[in-house]
Amino acid sequence: MADKREKTTDQMKLWKESRGKQQPDVLTTGGGHPIGDKLNLQTAGPKGPLLVQDVVFTDEMAHFDRERIPERVVHAKGAGAFGYFEVTHDITRYCKAKVFEHVGKTTPIAVRFSTVAGESGKKETYVNVGRYNICGRPNSVVFISSQNVYFFVLHVFERSSIDCLQVSFLFSDRGLPDGHRHMNGYGSHTFKLVNAKGECVYCKFHYKTDQGIKNLSVEEAERLASTDPDYAIGDLFNAIANGNYPSWTFYIQVMTFEQAEKFQFNPFDLTKIWPHKEYPLIPVGKMVLNRNPFNYFAEVEQMAFDPSNMPPGIEPSPDKMLQGRLFSYPDTHRHRLGANYLQIPVNCPYRARVANYQRDGPMCMSDNQGGAPNYYPNSFSAPEIQSHCVESKFKVHPDVARYNSSDEDNVTQVRTFYTQVLNEEQRQRLCQNMAGSLKGAQLFIQKRMVENLKAVHSDYASRVQALLDKFNEEADKNASVHVYTRPGASTIAASKKCNI
Predict the structure, then answer these.
(1) Transmembrane region positions (predicted)?
(2) pLDDT tens digits for range 140-176
(3) Where does the chain hold its CATH 2.40.180.10 domain(s)?
(4) Which residue has the higher pLDDT, 496 or 97?
(5) Does domain 78-352 have CATH number 2.40.180.10?
(6) Which of 129, 237, 319, 367 has the most CB atoms around its CB within 10 Å?
(7) CB 127 within 8 A of CB 99
(8) What integer pLDDT is reported at residue 164 of this predicted model?
(9) Long-range contacts formed by 368-375: CB under 8 A, 24+ apart
């Protein structure tokens, strides 16, 4: 009879099989000393107290007390996998980055998929000039365009009423992807590509799933949330373990500086998309995931993605959110993993030799660069600059001020999505999902959201309002008031209409 167990339930069996006929290792303490008895404590007699000298116990307990590290502020729960990126099309006319230097080149990658609160993945490539990280999402836009507002949104994420294209994406069918394998990935931010001649263009990154887009119904998602909350993680693990390696095709969109100056809206606003008719997708390569993590904590929980990890040929644009993340991400990692987080194997740029003037710090796991000088410049043949790696020049003309972009057009692309991208059934599900989420909000919040939807399309607003009216009417009928008197007195529950 064939074994139908999922690979996620057989991880220990798979680990044992990977060892072949090797004998079990000698059990040791953290210091490497062999242990003669692991199950029984040293005590003064069979009923006596513990002894401080029982280092087997104290070694185990002290480590247990410290084995949890701070979880990520956002993207706390996720899945990870490893594989490779292969270049299939030449884009050296746009970018000199080594990862794209010729067709057929392959580069090892690490990927982590996660939710924001509590949709996005991040891709990392280990190139021979360091690490390259792409911070991305399963939708091409995000909620807000200002980094200064970002952490407020994260603090109240599930109750936020911010209105933009991403809200409509989130409540549409696209908001419930059927696992990580069946969703696209988008770099969200605008980046700058630089070629070997020093010529620059702006670009956006896209990963299109080769498995096809598949989404869950609300009912199926609710069932999985209660019966299999790790469904997406398990689906990815099982696919890779069974040799069904998921893949994504990588594209870029390109915009010249001149086009950016004349663009109808701010091209660095990541709440909006670049129309594909004007800026078509250019194929670049393929990402394939073919290895599960050997150990979740070591290779996934300790992964530290950082959009400031950009090899020569890829640079930041004026994107406000990107500029904020260039500082925020590495700063978070230093808090969560320590000052030397880049020495952790999964984060180490192992294909490049790290040579700098950074020394010491907690958990230094390297040779600390030996006796090399820790100051620059010096006269002792220590690391020198590479002039060909200097960033491209760019001009900045405007006055420095705190600019508010809230008066920009935030509805046209939402209207296009609602009227032209979605069909009738998808529009109805979008409105049902949105009303279902809004029904628990304060009435003035509901009204404010409906007013925002009116600016997008009257049909959008009227459908959501009709559904909210129905929900609110049912809530009024079923509402109960609980009156609590002094301690010990009985509780009176009366069904009546509530105006809260």
Answers:
(1) none
(2) 554 444 444 443 334 333 333 344 578 888 889 888 8
(3) 78-352
(4) 97
(5) yes
(6) 319
(7) yes
(8) 59
(9) none
Q: How far apart are CA 134 and CA 258, in angstroms?
A: 25
Whole-angstrom distance, CA of residue 133 vs CA of residue 304: 9
Spatial distance between the Cα atoms of 422 and 402, rounded to a whole number of angstroms: 37
Identify each DSSP E strand in 103-189 by its residue range.
Answer: 106-114, 120-127, 130-135, 185-186
Q: Which residues does residue 481 pair with via DSSP β-bridges, in sequence order?
A: 494
Name the phi and psi angles at 10, rounded to 5: -120, 25
Q: Hey, what are 285's tokens?
A: 């390569």
Mean of pLDDT over the chain: 82
Euclidean distance between CA atoms 159 and 332, whole angstroms = 24
User: Is residue 329 part of an annotated ligand binding site?
Assistant: yes
| Burial environment of residue 68 by CB neighbours within 10 A (0 to 12, 13 to 18, 19 or more) | exposed
CA distances from 142 to 75, 116, 179, 186 (A): 15, 11, 20, 10
Please say if the pLDDT value at position 217 is more than 60: yes
Are 42 and 53 spatial neighbours (Cβ–Cβ below 8 Å)?
yes
Q: Say if residue 485's pLDDT is above 70.
A: no
Nearest alpha carbon to residue 294 among 345, 226, 333, 246: 345
Q: Which residue type occupies 499?
A: N
Q: Degrees (nearest 5) of the Cα angle 146, 152, 154?
A: 100
Q: b or e along 36-63 (b: 16 or more beta carbons within 10 Å of the residue's beta carbon)? A: eeeeeeeeeeeeeeeeeeebbbebeeee
Q: Sign of the C-alpha dihedral, residues 274, 276, 279, 283?
A: positive
Residue type, 430: L
**What pLDDT does residue 154 have?**
40
pTM of the model: 0.78
The residues near 129 (Cβ < 8 Å, ≥ 6 apart) are 98, 311, 312, 352
From CA 99, how far away is CA 97, in angstroms rounded? 5
Distance CA 330, CA 349 (A): 15
**Contact between 168 and 430 (Cβ < 8 Å):** yes
Asked if residues 447 and 461 have their Cβ atoms less than 8 Å apart, the reply is no
Cis amide linkage into residue 377, ω under 30° from 0: yes
As beta bridge partners, residue 391 has none
* pLDDT tens string 308-358: 888 899 999 988 888 888 888 888 888 889 989 889 999 888 777 887 878
Q: Which of 476, 471, 381, 463 is nearest to 418 (CA)?
A: 463
